[in-house]
Amino acid sequence: MDIPARQNVPASPDQAVSARKVRRTADPAFRLLVTITGVAVLVVLGAIIAVMVNGGWHAFATFGPAFLISDAWNPVTQHFGAAAPVFGTVVSSALALLLAVPLAFGTAFWLTALAPPKVASVIGMAVQLLAAVPSIIFGMWGFFVVVPIIAHYVQPFLHHTFGHVPVLSVLVAGAPFGTGLLTAGFILAVMITPSITAVMRDVFASMPAVLRESGYGLGATRWEVMRHVVLPWSREGLVGGIVLGMGRAMGETMAVTFVIGDSNHIGWSLFAPANTIASLIALEFPESPAGSLKLASLLALGAILMAISFVTLWFSRWLLARGESTGRRV
Amino acid sequence: MSSTSPSLMRADRSRALLVRRQLSDRLATGFGWVAMAVVVWMLGSILWTLLRNGLPGLSVHLFTRSMAPPGQDGGLANAIVGDILQTGLGVLLGAPAGLLTGIFLAEYGANNKLARMVRFVSDMLLSAPSILIGLFIYMIMVAPVGHFSGFSGSVALAILAMPIVVRTTEDMLRLVPVSMREAGIALGAPKWRVILFICLRAVRGGVMTGILLAVARVAGETAPLLFTSLGNSEWSLDMSRPMASLPVAIYQYAGSAYQDWMQQAWSGALLVTFGVLIINIVVRVGTRGGRA
């Protein structure tokens, strides 16, 4: 390491005075520079919120509170509502969590308790690589690999098995296109499993080893240590990681756009084509000229998505921070 | 007789308990293995699909010719170059901002309210839906001037790249030992020199990691570019005009019904994915070596 200050040693008193002057102004200037950049981050977020709300105001003002509960999306009659895409967003994300949480938990359990350390680091890296794959690739993979499997095998099987059971028949109704809420939920699950796994693994690993060891010392099995020692200890961190995954799922665009089916109807069938807020924005934006009521409605949907995802993110940060502080107390 | 049966019963019960405990442990172990296998299988399936469909289309034309109507034997050269230009400019704009913000959080924001807010907001931007960033840039940079541009795409990517750099820079600077700072200050270096030339220099590997991860993240982004740089089927290096990018070209081609466009979509997908994964692998293997 070189020592830059050495170069500053002044040769004459004159230079010493000027060096001191530079120092006196340079330090506050640097501090000002980094502070301004920090504040600029706040300004960017503020501007995003302002643009969404301001742009969507036209839609909120035209339709009133009905915008939130109407499932209409009719460019001909200029009637728009947010209910259908919000429904699709919530249901597809919920399905994704239903699939991703057990998968992520099992993988994190395997990585922290079952695998030999060297193998765990290789598999752990593979899991992280899955998280790095661009979302459009998940969309293509979903459309060309997963959709045919669901159309040819999963949906006929479920229809055959549950088609005559009163409540379940509603869930499996519909033509076997292979696209729809369940497929979107599945693709989203694949996308968010790595990030939930990463958080769970970190939380498990952050537990003091002595707690785990005392469990084993009492003769507990690996599962018992996980169930009665690790899980209670890391509950908040776990939920925080899951909520973080949910936030990701709700904002995902490209992967969902390929497989959701693009239809603005609220239906209870898992195979019904639907839309999420993000996929609707991606699909409808090209036909929405600037200044139109449709663009305003899309921006209003953007504002709603922003609000939903920020509330979930805030909640997950809060949980993770709480988990950390209880960890420090132990 | 009466003295043996309770102890036998007790032995039975404890054996049953042991069996039950072992069974639940086996079940959980089996579940862990299955979950891991499913996740690895998914990655394998994605890579296999890309290789099988993308490899046959890799040719010199793909890299030397611009996009063309179906049947005219076009390539993806303009999309590849457009992607590199927009990602490069995006990171060039986003990384310095992220670096300075990271310095602010680590060095000047130990316990103040402003820093806590900036950290929180930066984390929010890190997970903000990328399509909203695209919509935002459309409203402030595209709609007012009336046409799409590669430059606005770069700005959208910069907003996505910045929080990643903020995160890694702050985390890395916090790892610098106090004694190193004290050594710098004792030699009479001003604080800004200590930060830039001692602390940042000491962790430059980690900071570079963050920047490379940001490159990998934004190079494959599609959603924010749909509304900003739009895509362009002609060769163009003009950042003030609509500009092609690989993910947007893939999106456009994958939804088409033409055989040769589909083929190019798969080949493009192969390029983007392996480019991004190779950056990730290099970064992760490199940092692991550095830490050890």
From TrEMBL, chain A:
Pfam families: BPD_transp_1 (PF00528). It is a multi-pass membrane protein. The keyword Kinase does not apply. It is found in: Cell inner membrane; Cell membrane. Part of the binding-protein-dependent transport system for phosphate; probably responsible for the translocation of the substrate across the membrane. Belongs to the binding-protein-dependent transport system permease family. CysTW subfamily. This is Phosphate transport system permease protein. It comes from Acetobacter peroxydans. The lineage of its organism: Bacteria, Pseudomonadati, Pseudomonadota, Alphaproteobacteria, Acetobacterales. The gene is pstC.
Automatic annotation (TrEMBL), chain B:
One of its GO terms (biological process) is phosphate ion transmembrane transport. Residues 80-283 form the ABC transmembrane type-1 domain. GO terms for cellular component: plasma membrane. It is found in: Cell inner membrane; Cell membrane. The chain crosses the membrane at residues 30-51, 84-108, 120-141, 147-166, 194-216, 265-283. One of its GO terms (molecular function) is phosphate transmembrane transporter activity. SUPFAM superfamilies: MetI-like. InterPro entries: MetI-like, MetI-like_sf, Phosphate_PstA, Phosphate_transprt_permease. Keywords: Cell membrane, Membrane, Phosphate transport, Transmembrane, Transmembrane helix, Transport. The keyword Transport applies. Coiled coil: none annotated. It comes from the Bacteria. Pfam families: BPD_transp_1 (PF00528). The keyword Membrane applies. It is a multi-pass membrane protein. NCBIfam families: 3a0107s02c. Belongs to the binding-protein-dependent transport system permease family. CysTW subfamily. This is Phosphate transport system permease protein PstA. It comes from Acetobacter peroxydans.
